[in-house]
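tmp note - Aminoglycoside phosphotransferase domain-containing protein
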Amino acid sequence: PMETSRVVGAAVAAAGAVALTVWYLRRRAAGFASSSSSRVSDAKESEGLARLAEQIQAPVHGKPEVLTPQSVLAYFRRLPLTRPVAAESAALTAEDSSTGNLNYCFVVKDGARKTSVFVKQAPDFVKCLGEDAKLTTERIRFEAQAALEFMKHAPGTVPDLFHFDATNCVMVMEHLAEYRLLNDDLIAEEVSSSAAQSIAVFMGRVHTATHRQLVSSEGREDYEKRFHNPALCGITDTYIFTLPFIEDASNSHTAGLDARVAGIRADQQFLGDIKAVHKIYQTKKEALLHGDLHAGSIMTNGIDAKVIDHEFVFYGPAGFDLGLFVAGYVFPYAAAAAKGRDGTATAILTVLEGAVTQYLTLLKAARPIDAK
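out:
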């Protein structure tokens, strides 16, 4: 069954790869390249995207050899990469950047060019839980497919993808060296309106470009098949919609909140609302979603923002992305209000209101979407 799943996944990915390549060829034919230099640049871009689309067609390995800070350089030197870091450079260095829960990550730097790339590997388990906590390596293909779709519909809002290696379950992408997690900024009470607007644009462009009311029935069916992601959606089912509302070892809260937490878990009307929203998450097929758009999946330099970690991508209710994004601001707002930092609390609400308004404006402009 596992092998069959990988073959089916590869076949679906191949169909998507063809569609993506055709889109770029049509874009060129439509006259987007208006000068000789831009035609050359566009040709290189199309060639690179076609190569990536082909790489994503290959079945991913079920149990790749895990890279380490010691082995990643030897691995990287075997890759057919010349930009922005040349694999054959004698001045390569690598450092561990594995701060997330699921994957192994490294930064490879070219000291000669003063450039760097981000290398991400998906092992066949949840990194933070250990090798017994198995998780499909197909998630790296979902992330790569999502990256190409997001680059297509909302260029500049995600890191560029340079290489995909199905055998080793590795992606090589743009290193956001000057960026930091939005969550860290919000904790530090640094609130950027333009960064929030960037994410509103990301959501608005991706959701409208893939919305069931704006694509053909064939296109909608293609999105649903290519981004049918039961393993990662299952994690959301468990850790967002189920475990927080029961007694479980994965939950924690400060002692002073015992009574409030117990009250929430005993509130049957509230729990019924959670079940209703959970059903919408599981059944409503509306648009292509990032699927994990909290403040830890967004990086910012204080001016703009880029979305990372796309492995939870799926075709579902657009409001789920928006809800996670809003939640990322609600928590620091509550913290600021509790500390009496009224200026910060007001700034957060103002920025959030502006971003949501921008998002809804994009949806309403893309008729016939009902953006209620």
